[in-house]
Design brief:
The protein is an alpha/beta fold and 379 residues long. The protein folds into 2 domains: 213 residues, Rossmann fold (3-Layer(aba) Sandwich); 158 residues, Rossmann fold (3-Layer(aba) Sandwich). Helix content is 37%, strand content 17%. It has 14 helices and 15 strands.
């Protein structure tokens, strides 16, 4: 079976790339197709495969501004020789054209936020330039139509959470099976807590980090912020001296930061949320806004694993911090760690292999007969 893996872009290393790495282990001979590819920033796991980048790759430095051209770039890939196509979707990826005999499975991290759920915020609050806002309206309308139409090219959707499963149905009117993304839970460990809270996040508006920065600036508690992004300068200006911005942190150092923190703080909605799982795997609770994928990890973490607050406000977050500190000494780290085994890479591989081995959910299945004849039969 010839397998092609489609990933939106390979220019950094985040949760979506962790899923692709696991798929590379499941299909070691698969070829990878991507819109943008930077070998210097890509994992060695990817460089071991044949990687084909789109004709837009010479302009990868500006990849976030090339969204209107991405449908054409995806449709330019020649995938006729592949029997199984797996697209990893968060930006556009599922819009590739495949053979009628091929099976197309889309692992969806989320339908594109800036076109669907968060479009009003991007248009009215997070896009500062009036010219960009004016251009955004017709371009977004065209891309939403293409995104909806391209969902019909997928045989089976897989969502990374129940939260994203609901979004897929709302945006595309398609059902999806839930398989949580892989997390290297066995590589995390617990240390006695030092006097700081931790944020691990890209510094972008929809993460609502301004709420956390304002709350900690007001209450004086120590906070370490790991991550980079376009909001760095704005958040740094509003932060008090008790808030430390650590930038991008290597894996071993990040695990130590998790292990020695008091708790992880999440002030935005996550599609699934790998950072809460990493925190729980370190035996540290999560203080989070009560919405999105964290509700699923919180339900499994049990008592003392998650302290949720109902509104994305400074006062609401402050209340959750106070509730946590009242019971902090009674939390059992080993119970939090044991709740994360279901998110391990081995569980992801087992569930995805079972999905691939199962007959596809189609009314008609292509069947290859002896000789050169092919016919289609009803299941």
């Amino acid at each position: 079976m010839r397998v092609a893996l489609i990933h939106y872009w390979l220019v950094n290393q985040r949760g979506g790339e962790a899923v692709l790495q696991a798929l590379c282990k499941l299909f070691p001979d698969a070829d990878i197709f991507t819109l943008f590819y930077d070998p210097q920033k890509a994992s060695p796991d990817f460089r071991a495969h044949k990687v084909t980048a789109s004709f837009l790759n010479p302009f990868r430095r500006y990849y976030q501004s090339l969204l209107p051209l991405m449908p054409m770039a995806l449709e330019s890939f020649d995938l006729r020789e592949y029997d199984l196509v797996i697209s990893s979707e968060s930006g556009p990826a599922k819009g590739v054209l495949v053979s009628s005999e091929a099976r197309h499975i889309c692992y969806c991290h989320t339908p594109m936020r800036y076109l669907w759920e968060l479009y009003p915020d991007y248009l009215n609050h997070w896009t500062a330039s009036r010219i960009k806002r004016t251009l955004m309206i017709p371009i977004s309308n065209y891309l939403r139509l293409w995104d909806y139409a391209s969902a019909a090219r997928v045989d089976e959707f897989v969502a990374n959470s129940e939260n994203v499963k609901r979004r897929i149905h709302r945006c595309y009117r398609r059902d999806a099976e839930v398989i949580h993304p892989p997390v290297a839970v066995e590589s995390f460990f617990w240390h006695p807590p030092q006097d700081y809270y931790l944020i691990v996040s890209e510094l972008v508006p929809y993460k609502r980090l301004d709420v956390a920065v304002q709350a900690f600036s007001a209450n004086g508690r120590k906070l370490k912020v790991v991550g980079t992004g376009p909001q760095y300068r704005e958040l740094r200006r509003m932060a008090a001296a008790n808030i430390e911005f650590c930038g991008r942190v290597p894996g071993p150092e990040l695990r130590t930061l998790y292990a020695s923190s008091r708790a992880l703080v999440m002030s935005g909605e996550e599609d699934f949320g790998i950072t809460p799982v990493e925190s729980l795997a370190s035996g540290k609770p999560v203080i989070a806004w009560e919405c999105g994928g964290v509700l699923e990890t919180a339900a499994l973490a049990g008592e003392g694993g998650a302290f949720l607050y109902p509104r994305p406000t400074v006062e609401s977050l402050q209340g959750a911090l106070e509730r946590f500190e009242r019971v902090e000494s009674r939390i059992k780290p080993e119970l939090l760690q044991s709740s994360t085994y279901c998110f391990s890479e081995s569980e992801f591989l087992r569930k995805f292999r079972r999905l691939v081995d199962r007959a596809p959910h189609q009314e008609f299945l292509p069947v290859r007969t002896t000789g050169m004849v092919r016919r289609r039969i009803r299941r």
